[in-house]
Amino acid sequence: MRKSQEHQLLEELQSRGRLSPTEEKELFIRRVGFEGELEAFQLISDYKKSEWQLLNDLTFNHDFGEIQVDLLLITQLGWWVFEVKNYDSDYEYRDGKWLVNGRPKARDDFAQLKRTMEIFKNIHRSSGSRGELVGKLLFINESDSVEIVGADSALYLKRAKLKRYLQELAEDCTIFIDDTVNIEREAQWLLSWTEKNLRLKSITDDRFESLRKGIYCYLCRSFNTEVVRFHVCCHACGSTEASEKAILRTICGYGVLFPYKNLKTSEVLSLFGGQVKYYRVNKILKKYFEVSSSKGSFINPINSFEYQFLNIKFRYIDKRNLGIKKES
Ligand SMILES: [Zn+2]
Fold first, then answer.
1. What pTM, to 2 d.p., does this model score?
2. What are the chain's domains?
């Protein structure tokens, strides 16, 4: 599971400058939401049957309208849509109204679910899937501070009931001997219908000017770093990182800030604040990124390093707090 581009962008902005109060709030909401989705994804993965497919963060934009779905579980019996809510304040739903800590809540989660499912119904129908379509709010927070009175119990599920619910669903599915092929086909069909980059956020050139340039430490985010041949040393926490990795990480950060741009060496270089030379950035772009159709530029993966290059092994490994060693 990966964070959305907007979430990644806010984190890059936070590392390189100050967020506005609105952005701070937005980042907080995104972090809490992401943690909840991650938690839900892991729990469902643990409890689900192996042949079921669990998809996450799907965005659709077709004639039916635009919707985003947190989690979608494909089983022999049909599709289960989960809208994950990671609430730890006191939420109360009574007589058709939501309250948060005793005050009215702006958005009605049930109304939002209803809207999503109305649109999703059309997608489900056009897929040719003959199974059921079920939509539920999933309250994932362990504190279980959500109290619901008078709502259709089919429309929501609490964390404590999730395991039992999926076990029962699995039992219901045992009448199907093997429908793995259909599940796989439906998952592929859905993925082919999603729009990966629908809501991209970019920053202005002025905002870019105001950002702190250079390589920040991968551990403590300090800019007090020094590129020493094959390593980047952090003078604040004493860690070292392979310089190839640090450069790659910084290039990815640039791509997240400007999702609509291809990656050009001269432009990307401006984020390094003079810490790295042109040829080195160019060499790494050539090594790790695909050449784009526009001359002299590379395809922007619009993804931070942790998601794009996680499995790449570097010759030099990162070291934490082992003192700063300068190479001769
Ligand atoms: Zn550091």
1. 0.85
2. 5-193 (3.40.1350.10), 205-308 (1.10.10)
